[in-house]
Design goal:
Pfam families: GerE
Number of strands: 9
Protein name: LuxR family transcriptional regulator
Strand order of the largest sheet: 4-3-9-8-7
CATH architecture of the largest domain: 2-Layer Sandwich
Oligomer: single chain
Shape: elongated
Domain HTH luxR-type: 214-279
Order of helices and strands: HHEEHEEHEEHHEEHEHHHHH
InterPro entries: Sig_transdc_resp-reg_C-effctor (IPR016032), Tscrpt_reg_LuxR_C (IPR000792), WH-like_DNA-bd_sf (IPR036388)
Strand content: 15-25%
Radius of gyration: 31 Å
Largest sheet: 5 strands, antiparallel
Length: 284
């Protein structure tokens, strides 16, 4: 049996001096179960009591030690994976963007706190008996179309498909579909369903001060056009933008047509999706 490399040093250690020796356990067999770079390897100590260690007892230890070592290694691997899972769940829970895991019937398998807040508001999205429903029938149809199966989710991800959601007050949200790897698609024990994809939901806000440089370089918008774009995204249509900016509706329309031309879009809904690309879904 492999004892510690320096058994004399082991005898001088606290474990032997303060625990073994006071009990009269001068005779003990030690097996290193794990070699590590630390100064304290995992050790199995067998104390025979009044009897001395004999060949038969050592033979039994030779049979037991590999199994004990393997069990220790398995336990350590499980613990490492558990810690990684907990760390990942903690990261997801800290996101300010809502994350909702869905199965092929749009049943909610899991949601982070940010998503729970969105669902509790029962505005753009809500949960009805555990099933995700959108406020608009168009968004509902889009969700059902995407989450029919793994192939549809994969196709939505490949085409960078986003689903636009509009709240009662006119605020716009974007829902991005994310495919889940096979490990996360498996259902829990005793369950017949598992998540096939995730919905990443955040408010489409255009922070002009933070994004002005990127937008200007990309589309070469004037300050007035940029203000109209921001208002269309955050406030609503032409009349609402005119009231918010204190300008005539005809002026808003003029700037809006120029924004359409420069950005290559033709609808206000397209501007919302464009703005989502410049907004940060991780922070508000």
């Amino acid at each position: 049996m492999p004892d510690l490399v320096n058994f004399d040093e082991y005898r001088r250690g606290r474990f032997y001096q303060e625990w073994l020796r006071p009990q009269g356990c001068a005779d003990a067999a030690n097996v290193v179960l794990e070699q590590a770079n630390s100064s304290c390897p995992m050790l199995m100590t067998v104390i025979p009591g009044r009897q001395m260690l004999d060949a038969k007892m050592r033979a039994r230890m030779r049979l037991v030690a590999p199994h004990a070592s393997r069990a220790f290694m398995i336990n350590r691997t499980i613990e490492q994976k558990r810690q990684k899972s907990m760390a990942l769940a903690d990261v997801v829970d800290r996101l300010n963007a809502g994350v909702i895991l869905l199965d092929s019937a749009c049943n909610i398998v899991h949601s982070n706190p940010a998503a729970d807040a969105i669902l509790d508001a029962e505005d753009v999205l809500r949960s009805v008996h555990g099933r995700l429903l959108a406020r608009s029938s168009e968004a509902n149809a889009a969700l059902r179309d995407v989450f029919r199966g793994e192939a549809e989710v994969a196709a939505a991800v490949a085409t960078d498909r986003k689903i636009q959601l509009t709240s009662r007050d006119g605020s716009h949200y974007i829902a991005q579909v994310i495919a889940l790897p096979s490990l996360l698609r498996e259902g829990n024990a005793g369950r017949t369903r598992g998540a096939i994809g995730a919905l990443f939901v955040w408010m489409a806000k255009l922070d002009v001060r933070a994004c002005a440089g990127s937008i200007d370089r990309t589309f070469e918008l004037t300050p007035a056009e940029l203000r109209v774009l921001q208002s269309i995204v955050e406030v609503g249509g032409v009349p609402e933008t005119a009231d918010a900016l204190g300008i005539a509706e005809t002026t808003v329309k003029t700037h809006l047509h120029r924004v359409f031309a420069k950005t290559g879009t033709s609808r206000q809904a397209d501007l919302v999706k464009l703005a989502a690309g410049f907004s940060n879904p991780l922070v508000h």
